[in-house]
Amino acid sequence: xxxxxxxxxxxxxxxxxxxxxxxxxxxxxxxxxxxxxxxxxxxxxxxxxxxxxxxxxxxxxxxxxxxxxxxxxxxxxxxxxxxxxxxxxxxxxxxxxxxxxxxxxxxxxxxxxxxxxxxxxxxxxxxxxxxxxxxxxxxxxxxxxxxxxxxxxxxxxxxxxxxxxxxxxxxxxxxxxxxxxxxxxxxxxxxxxxxxxxxxxxxxxxxxxxxxxxxxxxxxxxxxxxxxxxxxxxxxxxxxxxxxxxxxxxxxxxxxxxxxxxxxxxxxxxxx
Length: 272
Fold this sequence. Notes:
272 residues, alpha/beta, Rossmann fold, 7-stranded mixed beta sheet, 10 helices, globular
């Protein structure tokens, strides 16, 4: 019996459960509406510090697949994508694939918290975890340059999607995982990623939703992936514009690596 391995797995299992608030009922409400009466009512509640949420019975299927947004969770990607991320990170370590771990679009930081935890329990002392985000939510669609993003108004959900850098750091502190190997890149991807001080990447996780965000991250960072590195796309099946960006990039650069399905939304492949 390997007690060390058992304790490590138990810790990571508990961490995933808590990051997803597995079993909790309370869900965040997305306020992406322009109806003036609804907006005024919700804004009035916000000024009074009244949080608008929905409470309904916990749905194991939805939480597993990331189809609901638990109000207090540090991640909304669901248990299957989070577990897959853990396995990919452990493969990076087992195969000693060179490079840091990067997530583009971090929300409350839950996926990166898990990656940092995996590095910690396996005793890795050389890799860093990079969090790239505007910390202001999703940009409005640039329909002139990225027609695929037409009518994708995720920017209207800034009340839920915009999480400050300090809030994300506080989440890392809550788990005792904030240190100098957790690095932040604050700003729009077009401004931060091309000049990001990252040499090699062993795992790249993209969760920018839009065509614009996805293609900008791939253009800037994919060439830095080591052979065998993982490229994970969170919204591949959930958002058509995201999938189109991936398809366009892979076709342009002749990427033939097979795509592995995760949960009906997310996918990954390994760089050859």
